[in-house]
Amino acid sequence: MRTLTATVISALIVGSGALTTLAPAHAAAVKDPGQAIVDYWTPERLAAVKPLQAASLEGGVSPLSPPTLGEPRQIAPVPHPGATSNAQPSAAGVTPASGGWEADPQPWTGGGTIAGTVGRLVGVGEDGAGFVATANVVVSDKGNVVATAAHALVTPKGNKTTQLMFMPGWKEGQPEPPPYGKFPAVASFVPAPYILKDGNGKPTSVDYHYDTGFLIVAPAPDGRQVQQVVGAQGVKFNDVTRSDEHTFGFPSEATTPDLQHCHGPNAEDRVWFLAFAMRCPVNSGSPWLRDFDPHTGVGYQMTVAALVNASDKMMLGVAWGKDVEDAYNTANTYAPEWSAGKQYAAGDLVTYSGRTYRCLQPHISQPGWEPANTPALWRRTDPGIALP
């Protein structure tokens, strides 16, 4: 039996032992997950990771329900002010062939913001083996949101992955540390319909039609959020027009450490409703962008590489519809749980008893000063998503 709740996002709380389905404003923080994750990833473990495999269409994967579309929406990218571009007209992409949807990947040498926002996401699956996927920094209010494939966050059986850490701009085999630092995940979010459950609410499998996930990552040691460090790509939701696309990612096979780039009009997949197709064998989670400017390295992400037809290396990404937009909104408004004995600044957001509150004045919290009990210190401001 398949259980779907349209207004509920599946939140995967890093460091917990179970997958929890929570309302958008209920995601709970782990107090300090970062250092343990950073410490876990020794050079030996990083060297042993294997590319995360996308679900194969030849393995019996089939669509269960098409995504729901809302109103078209886009949020502009945040270029990194220090990024430089080497892009020339010939570096803007590979000339498409055979109807426009075949584009063999080429190393991206153009630089720009994209060279920093795209990076490697490492994690551990339920078999205990380390994996590496591609992820990308997307624009957010707090500057801490990263987009990737949902199957990098949830296993095919519906269980969460662990030890997730994002390294923007890092090429496999580069010496430590990564050029822009290490950003351990604090919380993860996938669209509610992605995780399928039995009649008892136990995760059983996943629906790859919703194969996008979002990570909240911890700030750098100097306090800067990842968006401040590398910039961020824009996002587009509910846009299913056929257009010229740019795909960036690391190879699906460990053949080269370099960031790869494909460019060309996408094709519509006739089996997977609202899926975009391009022959571009890049790693799971690689971003697909449109309205991309090769001279600045910024564009609008509208899906991720999620599925593959292994016989012809055709990659598929399903358009970001309403459920993915809801997951993004939840990540964007993510607030940690209120706790006593913590210094809060004006404007800080917290979650308390399933509600979101904004701090009105600086203070050190203490028992009895819970947000619901201190209107002089906190104002309730729940995210703009319907709660069940």
Which descriptors would you attach to this protein?
mainly beta, seven-stranded mixed β-sheet, disordered C terminus, 388 residues, 2 domains, Thrombin, subunit H
Protein model, in words:
This protein folds into two domains: 9-332, Thrombin, subunit H, CATH 2.40.10.120; 343-380, Carbohydrate-binding module superfamily 5/12 (Seminal Fluid Protein  PDC-109 (Domain B), Ribbon), CATH 2.10.10. Helices cover 9% and strands 32% of the residues. The protein is built from five helices and 28 strands. It has a seven-stranded mixed beta sheet with strand order 5-15-21-20-16-17-6, covered by helices on one side. Strands 7-8-9-14-11-10 form a six-stranded antiparallel β-barrel. Residues 1-8, 13-31, 88-102 and 383-388 have low confidence and may be disordered.
Summed up:
The chain has 388 residues and is mainly beta. The chain folds into 2 domains: 9-332, Thrombin, subunit H (Beta Barrel); 343-380, Carbohydrate-binding module superfamily 5/12 (Seminal Fluid Protein  PDC-109 (Domain B)).
